[in-house]
Design a protein that fits this description.
By secondary structure, this protein is α+β, with helices and mostly antiparallel strands. The chain has twelve helices and 17 strands. The strands form four sheets. Strands 2-1-5-4-3 form a five-stranded antiparallel sheet. Strands 7-6-10-9-8 form a five-stranded antiparallel sheet, sandwiched between helices. It has a five-stranded mixed sheet with strand order 12-14-15-17-16, with helices on one face.
């Protein structure tokens, strides 16, 4: 959003008669002094009238040719041309000069036309005032600084980005840089190229750090000396935060997939070794040896299947392919169904599962997701609890600070198992670790169960955590509003 607008000297900072057109010649802005000379109403001019329609017919082709010739030569400004205004009530002659406006790529974007009344000499206009109003309405930061970094001009958008009330509060734009040496390290490159586009961290008035994109042009005099740096600044903090989160997520997923690949490689390697052994020495094995190998193959197949099943479930959830349909769910009925499904696993280790859910504890939740959460937590408890151990499933309501506050249902799965080391607790529920360890009877896990639990709990607007010590059992808890 860069326009190459002609520079002006201090002596030209008085009011002028002027108008601005778009690339099609339609007037987009006209100064009050200019309007007062015409018989047209302002509403009939703005965004409707072609600038040539302001002139008498015998001047139109002359002006059109002059603009085309100026563009052809690569010039920015026409010479002053004597013209008469169409429908003008005073009958006076004027001099017209047209400035070619272009964007950073040099594409034609319109004309800035200046009028001088030949009889009275230079007629003052409100050009600087009107330009300031125009620039202040642009929702980007526009600035002009000297070579030293001293600020010459900033628009309202610039002040809004950095939370300043006026340009007087910003003594030097170098104070905005988080890296105080940044401008000094790049300024020579900017001057050599004549333009610049960069992203960097900056301070707001309060000292908060934001990301900004700075794009501008180096303005030089005829001798090639730097006069100003004119540019546009945009606050891109939200975009940068989103990019960083996406990058962090991608890195986590890459690490996660590498862990999953390793977990798949081991059982498949053992599966291949066992089948090769059977093929090589099938005739030498007795029934007991064959049964042992087949049991090993079955264990590896079951482990791989569970891993792929959990991976598919997690992938579907990440893509939003699992519907979220919350409805009133009777917690006692749901927990009893889960316990019934897992009872055989518990019986294999003589583990007692005790559901202590009060009748009437209802929760507004997705039945499938809630069942998956509790099933994973109870399965883990069975895995890490020794023979003749105990697992307890309980629930309670947690109320807000006052009697009318929102309440949450807290569900706990406690076991008398081996517990979790303090350094390993931090690895749970994390995609970049997919932490897994062997159960008390060497049961294998996928490391995905707790990650699914966390995803499903958070989808309900809740949270999940664990309280545990090595050798003292574990209590997994989660709350859902």
């Amino acid at each position: 959003m860069y326009l190459d607008i002609p520079q002006r000297t201090e002596s030209e900072h008085n009011e002028k008669m002027f108008f601005i057109t778009d690339e099609y010649g339609v007037i987009q802005f006209i100064s009050p002094n200019c309007v007062s000379l015409l018989a047209f109403e302002l509403d009939d001019i703005l965004f409707k009238l072609h600038y040539l329609d302001l002139l008498k017919a015998n001047y139109k082709q002359l002006i059109k040719n002059e603009v085309l010739e100026t563009q052809k030569k690569g010039l920015k400004t026409t010479k002053y041309l004597a013209v008469e205004l169409n429908k003008s009530n005073n009958g006076k002659s004027f001099k017209l000069k047209l400035n070619v406006l272009s964007d950073k790529q040099g594409r034609f974007k319109g004309l800035l036309a200046e009028l001088k009344q030949t009889v009275l000499g230079v007629v003052h206009s409100a050009i600087e005032k009107e330009y300031k109003q125009l620039l202040d309405n642009i929702p980007l930061g526009i600035y002009r600084t000297k070579h030293s970094g001293e600020i010459v001009y900033v628009n309202q958008g610039f002040l809004d980005i950095f939370h300043y009330q006026s340009s007087e509060n910003i003594k030097n734009n170098n104070n905005l840089f988080v890296d105080k040496h940044y401008r000094g390290s790049v300024i020579n490159e900017w001057i050599e190229k004549g333009e610049y586009c960069a992203e960097f961290k900056a301070y707001t008035k309060e000292g908060n750090v934001i990301y900004v994109k700075d794009e501008g042009k180096v303005i030089k005099d005829k001798e090639g000396n730097v006069i100003y740096f004119d540019g546009i600044i945009e606050n891109i903090s939200k975009q940068k935060e989103a990019e960083e989160k996406l990058q962090e997520l991608n890195l986590s997923k890459d690490k996660f997939l590498s862990i999953i690949s390793h977990d798949l490689k081991v059982p498949f390697g053992q599966f291949i070794s066992a089948t090769e052994l059977i093929l090589d020495k099938a005739g030498e094995f007795d029934i007991a040896q064959i049964e042992k190998i087949v049991r090993l193959l079955n264990e590896q197949a079951v482990k791989s299947y569970k891993l792929l099943e959990n991976l598919l479930e997690w992938s579907r959830n990440q893509k939003g392919l699992i519907d979220f349909n919350p409805q009133p769910v009777g917690l006692d009925v749901l927990v009893n169904d889960v316990v019934e499904d897992l009872q055989q696993l518990a019986d294999n280790k003589s583990i007692t599962i005790s559901p202590k859910i009060k009748s009437g504890h209802f929760i507004y939740a997705d039945n499938y997701m809630l069942s998956t959460i509790i099933r994973n937590l109870v399965s883990n408890a069975i895995k890490f609890t020794n023979i003749n151990g105990q697992i307890t499933i309980s629930s309670r309501y947690i109320f807000g600070e006052d009697a009318f506050g929102d309440k949450q249902l807290e569900i706990s799965v406690a076991d008398t198992g081996v517990g979790i080391r303090k350094e390993d607790i931090a690895k749970l529920f994390r995609i970049d670790t997919a932490f897994s360890s062997k159960g008390t009877e060497k049961e294998s896990g996928t490391g995905l169960g707790l990650i699914l639990c966390k995803d499903f709990v958070e989808k309900h607007g809740g949270r999940i955590w664990v309280e545990s010590e090595a050798g003292k059992g574990s209590i997994f808890k989660f709350r859902i509003p």
